[in-house]
Specification:
Elements lengths: L20 H10 L11 H12 L2 E5 L5 E5 L2 H9 L5 E3 L1 H11 L8 H11 L5 H28 L5 E4 L9 E5 L2 E5 L2 H15 L12 H8 L7 H13 L9 H31 L2 H4 L3 H9 L9 H32 L1 H14 L5 H6 L2 H13 L5 E6 L3 E10 L5 E7 L4 E5 H5 L2 H4 L43 H18 E5 L7 E5 L3 E5 L8 E6 L2
Parallel strand pairs: 2-10, 4-6
Antiparallel strand pairs: 1-2, 3-7, 4-14, 5-6, 7-10, 8-9, 11-14, 12-13
Length: 538
Amino acid sequence: MKTSLTIAIPGSVKPLDNCSFGWRVQCRLFTCGTVDLRQSDSATVYEHWAQEYGVVYMIPSVLGQTRIVLADPRAIAHFYARESWTYVQTPLSLALIENLVGRGVLSSQGESHRRQRKALTPAFSNAAIRKLTSVFYDSAYKVKNVWDTDVESSKDGNAVIEVQNCDFKDESYLVRDGYLLCKLRKSRNSSLDTIGIAGFSHDFGSLDGKHASVTEVFDTFGNNSQASAVNQLFFLFASAFPIIAKIPNKRTKLSKKLNVTMGEISNDLLIRSRREKDVNMKESEEEKSIIGLLIKAEGQEAELHMSEDEILAQMKVLLLAGYETTSISLTWALIELSRHPDVQTRLREELLAFGPDPTYDQLKASLPYLDAVVHEILRLHPAVPEFTRCARVDDVIPLSEPVCTESGKMTDSISIAKGSLMVISIRAINRSLAIWGPDAKEFKPDRWLTEDGISGKAKEVQGHRHLLTFVDGPRTCLGKDFAIAEFKTVLLVLVKNFMFEMRDGPDTEVEIARGILPRPRVVGEDGIGVPLRVRRYE
């Protein structure tokens, strides 16, 4: 007989009188004691519950459903080792992913996922990324040149640049509080141009002012800041009835439009690449580029054959990931450096002392403080903050410390029934006081520079550098090294050449806005506005 799983959350779960209908549903489900999801990010709530109820606990969900939350490094390692086989995408996740990018490596499970991933792996090897470093630098210097022009255009060499606001069609300029305000999407477009050139040998030209239809759809996701409550209510009920995800609403229509737009671009790139394959590519080069590997997998005789639909889905995933995740990390880096001028100065000193632009291998091994800053950003601000999976079969998960079951017994493992919904909050684990120590919530790059900077409990977290940012196991992020190299390159060029401050001072409040993925936004700004005061470093 299986041991019953903890943990009915004790105490009454009360609605709040001043909730709107959408928020009232959430309040009934997720308000406990003094913790309210409306006032805290979900990671704070998850951590609070872990402190109160143990390293694994059960929370109520909509219409009588429950979810099991894992907050234990050993349990999480066990979970990730079995992801794609024992733990799979929920029906809602599959519906949303397929609506956005089609049926590719993100939505596949088991053997299908292994086959598709293996076909793409050579494109993300160290050797392949090493050859792409010049592409990263080209995009970074294009951003620098644009910002140079904007700073020169200001009357005192002090421009305010909104580094990710996209509620506009073309670049525009206006004066606010006596400063030139440059509304640019350049730091985001560097990611799009980079993945275009590096992955598909195609320059979207967005950094040069060319129109890219895909950016308009990407940008639209961040423009309606009033939709978050409705969206959360929609997803809440869709988790119980996935068919709801097929009901047209503003977000699903945008997802479908983005899918179609990315599909048209991907199809054009694929047709062009097929034609150019024999003329412009040697076999050795073809097999190491993303587009070359995809074309190779298209052949019926290919060992790791992919259908045309699968190939187009991979291309859409790469466009989406290349545009969103790295640009989110870069925005957070500029925010944290603006809030911590001492860290910004120390980083700039390391970069200037090093001299010429570093090679790929030097980026990895010769700039320890840059590496520390980048990984501290990845720790505090993962692009994907949490996810949910469904148990495909029964399982028993071991724990690093015992928990109390509903019957009052202590157990060091939990039995998971087929169909159970499992939640891991990446952001909560990356910021956990119990795992990372008393300074877990602080932006502290120095923790990465000493042997004892990472606490013993954090070392139990399996994943890249003890982080869950890129998850772990058979579904760990395939483009991890690509993303880190691009992130380091762009940040290096910008910090060497510019000084950054929050427009309204270091205590400026920043909140999370909902785009395709959660993005930072300065409180009070429209869309996903992050205005920074920028001046050239002399």
